[in-house]
Design a protein that fits this description.
With about 475 residues, the chain is an alpha/beta fold. It is built from 15 helices and 18 strands. About 30% of the residues are buried.
Length: about 475
Protein backbone atom coordinates (compact mmCIF):
# COMPACT_ATOMS: atom_id res chain seq x y z
CA UNK A 1 0.00 0.00 0.00
CA UNK A 2 1.27 3.46 -0.87
CA UNK A 3 2.23 5.54 2.22
CA UNK A 4 -0.26 8.23 1.20
CA UNK A 5 -3.10 6.03 2.46
CA UNK A 6 -1.66 6.28 5.97
CA UNK A 7 -2.07 10.08 6.19
CA UNK A 8 -5.63 10.55 7.56
CA UNK A 9 -5.51 14.37 7.36
CA UNK A 10 -4.76 14.23 3.64
CA UNK A 11 -7.46 11.65 2.95
CA UNK A 12 -9.99 13.67 4.90
CA UNK A 13 -9.07 16.80 2.93
CA UNK A 14 -9.55 14.98 -0.39
CA UNK A 15 -12.90 13.46 0.61
CA UNK A 16 -14.14 16.83 1.86
CA UNK A 17 -14.46 18.01 -1.76
CA UNK A 18 -17.05 15.33 -2.59
CA UNK A 19 -20.49 16.94 -2.58
CA UNK A 20 -22.68 13.84 -2.72
CA UNK A 21 -22.89 11.55 0.29
CA UNK A 22 -23.35 8.62 -2.10
CA UNK A 23 -19.87 9.31 -3.53
CA UNK A 24 -18.40 9.32 -0.03
CA UNK A 25 -20.11 5.99 0.68
CA UNK A 26 -18.49 4.48 -2.42
CA UNK A 27 -15.08 5.71 -1.26
CA UNK A 28 -15.69 4.02 2.08
CA UNK A 29 -15.67 0.66 0.26
CA UNK A 30 -12.22 1.14 -1.32
CA UNK A 31 -10.01 0.32 1.65
CA UNK A 32 -9.89 0.52 5.44
CA UNK A 33 -8.03 3.87 5.48
CA UNK A 34 -10.61 5.54 3.26
CA UNK A 35 -13.41 3.85 5.17
CA UNK A 36 -12.41 5.49 8.46
CA UNK A 37 -12.08 8.99 6.99
CA UNK A 38 -15.25 8.62 4.90
CA UNK A 39 -17.16 7.63 8.04
CA UNK A 40 -16.10 10.87 9.72
CA UNK A 41 -17.65 12.87 6.87
CA UNK A 42 -20.76 10.69 6.62
CA UNK A 43 -21.46 11.08 10.31
CA UNK A 44 -20.31 14.69 10.57
CA UNK A 45 -23.85 16.00 10.08
CA UNK A 46 -26.86 13.86 11.10
CA UNK A 47 -30.27 15.27 10.18
CA UNK A 48 -32.23 13.01 12.56
CA UNK A 49 -31.26 11.10 15.70
CA UNK A 50 -33.04 8.00 14.38
CA UNK A 51 -30.19 7.37 11.91
CA UNK A 52 -28.04 6.37 14.86
CA UNK A 53 -30.49 3.53 15.49
CA UNK A 54 -29.16 1.91 12.32
CA UNK A 55 -26.31 0.67 14.49
CA UNK A 56 -28.73 -1.93 15.88
CA UNK A 57 -30.26 -4.98 14.13
CA UNK A 58 -33.55 -4.39 12.34
CA UNK A 59 -35.45 -6.54 14.83
CA UNK A 60 -34.17 -4.54 17.82
CA UNK A 61 -36.25 -1.38 17.22
CA UNK A 62 -39.99 -0.89 16.75
CA UNK A 63 -41.84 2.24 15.68
CA UNK A 64 -45.33 3.18 16.82
CA UNK A 65 -47.23 5.80 14.82
CA UNK A 66 -49.81 8.12 16.36
CA UNK A 67 -51.47 11.44 15.70
CA UNK A 68 -53.08 12.82 12.53
CA UNK A 69 -52.25 11.31 9.16
CA UNK A 70 -50.75 14.52 7.76
CA UNK A 71 -48.22 14.83 10.62
CA UNK A 72 -47.92 11.54 12.52
CA UNK A 73 -45.65 11.19 15.53
CA UNK A 74 -43.20 8.29 15.72
CA UNK A 75 -42.36 6.64 19.03
CA UNK A 76 -39.25 4.44 19.00
CA UNK A 77 -39.06 1.35 21.26
CA UNK A 78 -36.46 -1.31 22.01
CA UNK A 79 -37.81 -4.81 21.32
CA UNK A 80 -34.46 -6.41 22.14
CA UNK A 81 -31.74 -4.87 24.27
CA UNK A 82 -28.54 -4.26 22.26
CA UNK A 83 -25.44 -6.16 23.30
CA UNK A 84 -22.13 -4.53 24.24
CA UNK A 85 -20.70 -4.52 20.71
CA UNK A 86 -23.82 -2.79 19.37
CA UNK A 87 -23.69 -0.10 22.08
CA UNK A 88 -20.01 0.39 21.23
CA UNK A 89 -20.91 0.80 17.58
CA UNK A 90 -23.46 3.48 18.46
CA UNK A 91 -20.98 5.31 20.72
CA UNK A 92 -18.35 5.21 17.96
CA UNK A 93 -20.75 6.79 15.47
CA UNK A 94 -21.88 9.39 18.03
CA UNK A 95 -18.26 10.36 18.68
CA UNK A 96 -17.94 11.61 15.06
CA UNK A 97 -21.05 13.80 14.94
CA UNK A 98 -20.55 17.55 14.81
CA UNK A 99 -24.12 18.61 13.96
CA UNK A 100 -27.25 16.74 15.12
CA UNK A 101 -31.01 17.31 14.73
CA UNK A 102 -33.92 15.90 16.73
CA UNK A 103 -37.11 16.36 14.64
CA UNK A 104 -40.19 17.62 16.44
CA UNK A 105 -42.44 14.63 15.79
CA UNK A 106 -39.98 11.90 16.83
CA UNK A 107 -40.46 10.59 20.39
CA UNK A 108 -37.42 8.88 21.92
CA UNK A 109 -38.63 8.80 25.55
CA UNK A 110 -38.63 4.96 25.80
CA UNK A 111 -35.15 4.75 24.25
CA UNK A 112 -33.76 7.39 26.60
CA UNK A 113 -35.15 5.48 29.57
CA UNK A 114 -33.22 2.39 28.46
CA UNK A 115 -30.06 4.37 27.71
CA UNK A 116 -30.08 5.84 31.22
CA UNK A 117 -30.95 2.54 32.89
CA UNK A 118 -28.26 0.61 31.01
CA UNK A 119 -25.62 3.25 31.81
CA UNK A 120 -24.40 3.14 28.23
CA UNK A 121 -22.37 6.37 28.59
CA UNK A 122 -23.60 7.64 25.24
CA UNK A 123 -21.84 10.97 24.60
CA UNK A 124 -21.16 13.34 21.71
CA UNK A 125 -17.68 14.74 22.38
CA UNK A 126 -17.25 16.37 18.94
CA UNK A 127 -20.73 17.90 18.76
CA UNK A 128 -20.74 21.66 18.21
CA UNK A 129 -24.21 22.27 16.71
CA UNK A 130 -27.51 20.88 18.06
CA UNK A 131 -31.05 21.39 16.73
CA UNK A 132 -33.57 20.14 19.26
CA UNK A 133 -37.25 20.39 18.30
CA UNK A 134 -39.61 18.98 20.92
CA UNK A 135 -43.37 18.57 20.85
CA UNK A 136 -43.58 18.64 24.62
CA UNK A 137 -47.22 17.90 25.43
CA UNK A 138 -46.72 14.14 25.96
CA UNK A 139 -42.95 14.01 26.59
CA UNK A 140 -41.20 13.36 29.86
CA UNK A 141 -37.51 13.16 28.94
CA UNK A 142 -35.08 15.85 27.94
CA UNK A 143 -32.25 14.95 25.61
CA UNK A 144 -29.87 17.53 27.02
CA UNK A 145 -28.10 15.26 29.56
CA UNK A 146 -26.66 13.35 26.58
CA UNK A 147 -24.65 16.45 25.68
CA UNK A 148 -23.06 17.29 29.02
CA UNK A 149 -19.58 16.51 27.67
CA UNK A 150 -20.13 18.33 24.36
CA UNK A 151 -18.79 21.81 23.73
CA UNK A 152 -21.76 23.26 21.89
CA UNK A 153 -21.17 26.44 19.89
CA UNK A 154 -24.63 26.56 18.29
CA UNK A 155 -27.92 25.46 19.85
CA UNK A 156 -31.44 25.63 18.45
CA UNK A 157 -34.14 24.43 20.84
CA UNK A 158 -37.91 24.74 20.42
CA UNK A 159 -40.73 23.59 22.68
CA UNK A 160 -44.10 23.13 20.99
CA UNK A 161 -47.03 22.70 23.35
CA UNK A 162 -47.54 23.13 27.08
CA UNK A 163 -45.41 21.23 29.60
CA UNK A 164 -43.85 23.57 32.15
CA UNK A 165 -42.05 20.81 34.02
CA UNK A 166 -40.19 19.57 30.95
CA UNK A 167 -39.35 23.09 29.71
CA UNK A 168 -38.03 24.13 33.12
CA UNK A 169 -35.97 20.94 33.46
CA UNK A 170 -34.45 21.42 30.01
CA UNK A 171 -33.50 25.06 30.63
CA UNK A 172 -32.04 24.28 34.06
CA UNK A 173 -29.96 21.48 32.51
CA UNK A 174 -28.75 23.81 29.78
CA UNK A 175 -27.69 26.41 32.35
CA UNK A 176 -25.82 23.79 34.38
CA UNK A 177 -23.91 22.43 31.37
CA UNK A 178 -22.39 25.86 30.63
CA UNK A 179 -21.66 25.36 26.93
CA UNK A 180 -19.48 28.05 25.25
CA UNK A 181 -22.33 29.06 22.96
CA UNK A 182 -21.88 31.55 20.14
CA UNK A 183 -25.30 31.04 18.54
CA UNK A 184 -28.54 30.40 20.47
CA UNK A 185 -32.10 29.99 19.16
CA UNK A 186 -34.93 29.36 21.62
CA UNK A 187 -38.66 29.23 20.94
CA UNK A 188 -41.63 28.07 22.99
CA UNK A 189 -45.41 28.02 22.92
CA UNK A 190 -45.24 28.73 26.64
CA UNK A 191 -42.08 29.73 28.51
CA UNK A 192 -42.71 29.70 32.30
CA UNK A 193 -41.13 32.13 34.77
CA UNK A 194 -38.47 29.70 36.07
CA UNK A 195 -37.28 29.09 32.51
CA UNK A 196 -37.13 32.84 31.90
CA UNK A 197 -34.88 33.19 34.96
CA UNK A 198 -32.67 30.32 33.76
CA UNK A 199 -32.36 32.02 30.36
CA UNK A 200 -31.33 35.32 31.91
CA UNK A 201 -28.75 33.54 34.07
CA UNK A 202 -27.52 31.75 30.95
CA UNK A 203 -26.90 35.13 29.27
CA UNK A 204 -24.93 36.30 32.30
CA UNK A 205 -22.81 33.13 32.24
CA UNK A 206 -22.29 33.06 28.44
CA UNK A 207 -20.79 36.33 27.20
CA UNK A 208 -19.60 34.48 24.06
CA UNK A 209 -23.08 34.65 22.44
CA UNK A 210 -22.93 36.66 19.21
CA UNK A 211 -26.18 35.47 17.56
CA UNK A 212 -29.51 35.18 19.38
CA UNK A 213 -33.01 34.27 18.10
CA UNK A 214 -36.06 34.26 20.37
CA UNK A 215 -39.65 33.21 19.62
CA UNK A 216 -42.07 33.70 22.53
CA UNK A 217 -45.28 35.36 23.51
CA UNK A 218 -44.64 39.00 24.35
CA UNK A 219 -45.16 38.54 28.10
CA UNK A 220 -42.80 35.53 28.17
CA UNK A 221 -40.08 37.18 26.13
CA UNK A 222 -39.82 40.90 26.91
CA UNK A 223 -37.66 40.48 30.03
CA UNK A 224 -35.39 38.09 28.10
CA UNK A 225 -34.92 40.71 25.37
CA UNK A 226 -34.02 43.23 28.06
CA UNK A 227 -31.40 40.83 29.44
CA UNK A 228 -30.02 40.29 25.93
CA UNK A 229 -29.18 43.99 25.79
CA UNK A 230 -26.38 43.30 28.26
CA UNK A 231 -24.67 40.61 26.16
CA UNK A 232 -21.30 42.23 25.42
CA UNK A 233 -20.62 40.53 22.06
CA UNK A 234 -24.12 40.25 20.61
CA UNK A 235 -24.05 41.08 16.90
CA UNK A 236 -27.27 39.52 15.59
CA UNK A 237 -30.62 39.65 17.39
CA UNK A 238 -33.86 38.19 16.06
CA UNK A 239 -37.01 38.11 18.13
CA UNK A 240 -40.61 37.18 17.41
CA UNK A 241 -42.80 38.41 20.28
CA UNK A 242 -46.50 38.12 19.54
CA UNK A 243 -49.14 39.72 21.72
CA UNK A 244 -49.37 42.96 23.68
CA UNK A 245 -46.33 43.72 25.83
CA UNK A 246 -46.22 45.35 29.24
CA UNK A 247 -42.74 46.79 28.84
CA UNK A 248 -42.65 49.92 26.64
CA UNK A 249 -39.01 50.83 27.28
CA UNK A 250 -35.70 49.01 27.64
CA UNK A 251 -32.52 50.05 29.38
CA UNK A 252 -29.84 51.22 26.97
CA UNK A 253 -27.64 48.42 25.66
CA UNK A 254 -26.97 46.27 22.58
CA UNK A 255 -23.52 47.85 22.38
CA UNK A 256 -22.17 45.54 19.63
CA UNK A 257 -25.34 44.90 17.62
CA UNK A 258 -24.96 44.73 13.83
CA UNK A 259 -28.30 43.25 12.67
CA UNK A 260 -31.78 43.48 14.23
CA UNK A 261 -34.62 41.29 12.91
CA UNK A 262 -37.99 41.58 14.67
CA UNK A 263 -41.62 40.47 14.49
CA UNK A 264 -43.59 42.27 17.18
CA UNK A 265 -46.00 45.05 18.03
CA UNK A 266 -44.94 48.60 17.32
CA UNK A 267 -44.38 49.21 21.05
CA UNK A 268 -41.86 46.35 21.33
CA UNK A 269 -40.02 47.35 18.14
CA UNK A 270 -39.81 50.99 19.23
CA UNK A 271 -38.61 50.10 22.74
CA UNK A 272 -35.72 48.04 21.37
CA UNK A 273 -34.81 50.58 18.67
CA UNK A 274 -34.59 53.33 21.30
CA UNK A 275 -32.35 51.15 23.50
CA UNK A 276 -29.70 50.42 20.84
CA UNK A 277 -26.40 52.18 21.47
CA UNK A 278 -24.31 50.26 18.93
CA UNK A 279 -22.43 52.58 16.54
CA UNK A 280 -22.04 49.77 13.98
CA UNK A 281 -25.60 48.57 13.42
CA UNK A 282 -26.04 48.13 9.66
CA UNK A 283 -29.35 46.30 9.13
CA UNK A 284 -32.92 46.56 10.43
CA UNK A 285 -35.62 44.11 9.37
CA UNK A 286 -38.91 44.75 11.19
CA UNK A 287 -42.34 43.18 10.77
CA UNK A 288 -44.79 45.22 12.84
CA UNK A 289 -48.24 44.01 13.91
CA UNK A 290 -51.09 45.82 15.63
CA UNK A 291 -51.96 49.49 15.72
CA UNK A 292 -49.48 52.26 16.34
CA UNK A 293 -50.02 53.57 19.85
CA UNK A 294 -47.37 56.28 19.43
CA UNK A 295 -46.32 58.56 16.62
CA UNK A 296 -44.92 56.54 13.67
CA UNK A 297 -42.18 59.14 13.31
CA UNK A 298 -40.73 58.11 16.71
CA UNK A 299 -39.39 54.87 15.23
CA UNK A 300 -37.73 56.64 12.30
CA UNK A 301 -36.25 59.29 14.57
CA UNK A 302 -34.61 56.49 16.55
CA UNK A 303 -33.28 55.00 13.31
CA UNK A 304 -31.89 58.37 12.29
CA UNK A 305 -29.27 58.06 15.05
CA UNK A 306 -27.94 54.81 13.48
CA UNK A 307 -25.57 56.43 11.04
CA UNK A 308 -24.08 53.13 9.76
CA UNK A 309 -27.42 51.73 8.56
CA UNK A 310 -27.14 50.07 5.16
CA UNK A 311 -30.25 47.87 4.95
CA UNK A 312 -33.77 48.77 6.15
CA UNK A 313 -36.95 46.72 5.68
CA UNK A 314 -40.16 47.65 7.50
CA UNK A 315 -43.53 45.96 6.98
CA UNK A 316 -46.58 47.35 8.80
CA UNK A 317 -49.21 44.61 8.69
CA UNK A 318 -52.12 46.20 10.55
CA UNK A 319 -51.63 49.91 10.04
CA UNK A 320 -52.01 51.70 6.75
CA UNK A 321 -51.78 55.45 7.50
CA UNK A 322 -48.01 55.87 7.38
CA UNK A 323 -46.99 59.13 5.73
CA UNK A 324 -43.67 60.08 4.15
CA UNK A 325 -43.32 62.87 6.73
CA UNK A 326 -43.06 60.10 9.37
CA UNK A 327 -40.32 58.32 7.41
CA UNK A 328 -38.29 61.37 6.42
CA UNK A 329 -35.93 61.50 9.46
CA UNK A 330 -34.16 58.34 8.24
CA UNK A 331 -32.81 60.28 5.24
CA UNK A 332 -30.03 61.45 7.56
CA UNK A 333 -28.49 57.94 7.35
CA UNK A 334 -26.15 58.36 4.36
CA UNK A 335 -25.07 54.75 3.81
CA UNK A 336 -28.41 53.13 3.01
CA UNK A 337 -28.32 50.98 -0.13
CA UNK A 338 -31.46 48.88 0.39
CA UNK A 339 -34.71 50.43 1.63
CA UNK A 340 -38.16 48.85 1.83
CA UNK A 341 -41.40 50.00 3.40
CA UNK A 342 -44.71 48.16 2.97
CA UNK A 343 -47.95 49.31 4.57
CA UNK A 344 -51.37 47.72 4.93
CA UNK A 345 -52.87 49.73 2.09
CA UNK A 346 -52.08 50.42 -1.55
CA UNK A 347 -48.98 52.37 -0.47
CA UNK A 348 -47.77 55.73 0.75
CA UNK A 349 -48.41 59.05 -0.98
CA UNK A 350 -45.23 59.72 -2.99
CA UNK A 351 -44.51 62.48 -5.51
CA UNK A 352 -41.61 63.62 -7.70
CA UNK A 353 -40.19 65.87 -4.99
CA UNK A 354 -39.95 62.96 -2.52
CA UNK A 355 -38.20 60.77 -5.10
CA UNK A 356 -35.77 63.59 -5.76
CA UNK A 357 -34.97 63.89 -2.05
CA UNK A 358 -34.45 60.10 -1.78
CA UNK A 359 -32.12 59.98 -4.77
CA UNK A 360 -30.01 62.86 -3.42
CA UNK A 361 -29.79 61.38 0.08
CA UNK A 362 -29.00 57.80 -1.02
CA UNK A 363 -27.06 57.81 -4.33
CA UNK A 364 -25.79 54.26 -3.69
CA UNK A 365 -29.23 52.65 -3.61
CA UNK A 366 -29.42 49.15 -5.09
CA UNK A 367 -32.97 48.37 -3.93
CA UNK A 368 -35.95 50.66 -3.29
CA UNK A 369 -39.40 49.27 -2.46
CA UNK A 370 -42.19 51.67 -1.53
CA UNK A 371 -44.86 49.02 -1.40
CA UNK A 372 -48.37 48.25 -0.24
CA UNK A 373 -49.85 45.00 1.04
CA UNK A 374 -53.21 45.79 -0.60
CA UNK A 375 -53.25 45.25 -4.37
CA UNK A 376 -56.61 46.99 -4.81
CA UNK A 377 -56.21 50.13 -6.87
CA UNK A 378 -56.68 53.30 -4.83
CA UNK A 379 -56.42 57.00 -5.55
CA UNK A 380 -52.86 57.90 -4.61
CA UNK A 381 -50.48 60.72 -5.26
CA UNK A 382 -47.87 59.06 -7.46
CA UNK A 383 -44.61 60.29 -8.95
CA UNK A 384 -44.51 60.77 -12.69
CA UNK A 385 -42.18 58.89 -15.01
CA UNK A 386 -39.97 61.96 -14.97
CA UNK A 387 -39.62 61.61 -11.18
CA UNK A 388 -38.70 57.96 -11.70
CA UNK A 389 -36.18 59.02 -14.35
CA UNK A 390 -34.45 61.35 -11.89
CA UNK A 391 -34.21 58.49 -9.39
CA UNK A 392 -32.72 56.14 -11.99
CA UNK A 393 -30.21 58.74 -13.12
CA UNK A 394 -28.97 59.66 -9.64
CA UNK A 395 -28.90 56.04 -8.39
CA UNK A 396 -27.05 54.12 -11.15
CA UNK A 397 -26.53 51.04 -8.95
CA UNK A 398 -30.25 50.26 -8.69
CA UNK A 399 -31.21 46.65 -9.32
CA UNK A 400 -34.77 46.58 -7.97
CA UNK A 401 -37.48 49.24 -7.72
CA UNK A 402 -41.06 48.74 -6.53
CA UNK A 403 -43.07 51.91 -6.98
CA UNK A 404 -46.44 53.21 -8.11
CA UNK A 405 -45.92 55.74 -10.92
CA UNK A 406 -48.25 57.78 -13.10
CA UNK A 407 -47.48 56.73 -16.68
CA UNK A 408 -50.38 58.46 -18.38
CA UNK A 409 -49.21 60.38 -21.46
CA UNK A 410 -50.17 63.77 -20.05
CA UNK A 411 -47.55 63.20 -17.37
CA UNK A 412 -44.74 62.78 -19.91
CA UNK A 413 -42.64 65.74 -21.07
CA UNK A 414 -43.63 66.69 -24.65
CA UNK A 415 -41.53 64.79 -27.17
CA UNK A 416 -39.30 63.54 -24.38
CA UNK A 417 -37.61 66.95 -24.49
CA UNK A 418 -37.07 67.02 -20.77
CA UNK A 419 -35.88 63.44 -20.44
CA UNK A 420 -32.79 63.02 -18.34
CA UNK A 421 -30.09 61.61 -20.64
CA UNK A 422 -28.98 58.11 -19.80
CA UNK A 423 -25.47 57.81 -18.45
CA UNK A 424 -23.04 55.80 -20.57
CA UNK A 425 -22.00 53.91 -17.43
CA UNK A 426 -23.02 50.24 -17.76
CA UNK A 427 -25.98 49.35 -15.53
CA UNK A 428 -27.01 46.05 -14.01
CA UNK A 429 -30.35 44.54 -14.92
CA UNK A 430 -33.20 46.48 -13.29
CA UNK A 431 -36.34 44.81 -11.97
CA UNK A 432 -39.07 47.47 -12.08
CA UNK A 433 -42.32 46.54 -10.31
CA UNK A 434 -44.93 49.18 -11.15
CA UNK A 435 -47.71 47.43 -9.16
CA UNK A 436 -51.04 48.94 -10.32
CA UNK A 437 -49.63 52.09 -11.89
CA UNK A 438 -51.96 53.90 -14.31
CA UNK A 439 -50.80 53.98 -17.94
CA UNK A 440 -52.24 55.45 -21.12
CA UNK A 441 -54.14 53.06 -23.33
CA UNK A 442 -51.84 52.14 -26.23
CA UNK A 443 -49.06 54.08 -24.56
CA UNK A 444 -46.53 51.27 -24.61
CA UNK A 445 -44.43 52.76 -27.42
CA UNK A 446 -43.98 56.15 -25.77
CA UNK A 447 -43.47 54.77 -22.24
CA UNK A 448 -40.92 52.14 -23.30
CA UNK A 449 -39.00 54.70 -25.37
CA UNK A 450 -38.94 57.09 -22.43
CA UNK A 451 -37.73 54.47 -19.94
CA UNK A 452 -34.96 53.33 -22.30
CA UNK A 453 -33.84 56.94 -22.69
CA UNK A 454 -33.13 57.14 -18.94
CA UNK A 455 -31.85 53.62 -18.18
CA UNK A 456 -28.77 52.43 -20.01
CA UNK A 457 -29.19 48.74 -19.38
CA UNK A 458 -31.57 45.78 -19.32
CA UNK A 459 -34.89 46.33 -17.57
CA UNK A 460 -37.63 43.85 -16.66
CA UNK A 461 -41.05 45.38 -16.01
CA UNK A 462 -43.64 43.59 -13.86
CA UNK A 463 -47.11 44.65 -12.77
CA UNK A 464 -49.81 43.55 -10.35
CA UNK A 465 -52.70 44.42 -12.65
CA UNK A 466 -54.98 41.41 -13.08
CA UNK A 467 -55.11 39.52 -16.38
CA UNK A 468 -58.51 40.92 -17.33
CA UNK A 469 -57.29 44.52 -17.17
CA UNK A 470 -55.95 46.14 -20.33
CA UNK A 471 -53.36 47.94 -18.18
CA UNK A 472 -51.62 44.62 -17.51
CA UNK A 473 -51.27 43.92 -21.23
CA UNK A 474 -49.97 47.45 -21.83
CA UNK A 475 -47.30 47.23 -19.12
CA UNK A 476 -46.35 43.77 -20.35
CA UNK A 477 -45.88 45.21 -23.84
CA UNK A 478 -43.68 47.97 -22.37
CA UNK A 479 -41.39 45.29 -20.94
CA UNK A 480 -41.31 43.32 -24.19
CA UNK A 481 -40.44 46.41 -26.26
CA UNK A 482 -37.62 47.32 -23.90
CA UNK A 483 -36.19 43.82 -24.20
CA UNK A 484 -36.40 43.85 -28.00
CA UNK A 485 -34.78 47.23 -28.44
CA UNK A 486 -31.80 46.47 -26.25
Amino acid sequence: MHPIWNIPELLGHILYYLDEKSDILRCALVCRSLSVEAARLIWREVSAFRYLLGCFPNNAIATEMSGPHHSPSRTFLFLVLPDTSQWNHMRFRASMIKELTFPELDNYDPLLEVIKRQETRLTFPELVSLHLHVSVAKRFETFLPLFASSKLRALEITFKGYNDRLVNTAMETLLTQAHPLRSLEVGATSFPKPSQHYMIQLFEATPSIISLSLTFGALDGEDIVQAAARLPNLQYLSFDLRGDPIRTAHAMGFHSLDILDTSSTYASALAVARAITSPIITALNMRIFGYLIEQPSDLFQSMATMTSLNYVSLIFYNHGTLQWADVEPILSCPSISSFEIAVNSAGMEIDDEILSVISRAWPNLTRLKLDGLDDIRQLLTRPSLHGLAELLDRCPKLEEVTLEVDARLKQLPPGLANAIPASSEPRKKLLLNVRTSPIARKGEEVVSEYLMSVWHGECEVVTLWEDRNWQRATWKKVGELMQQRR
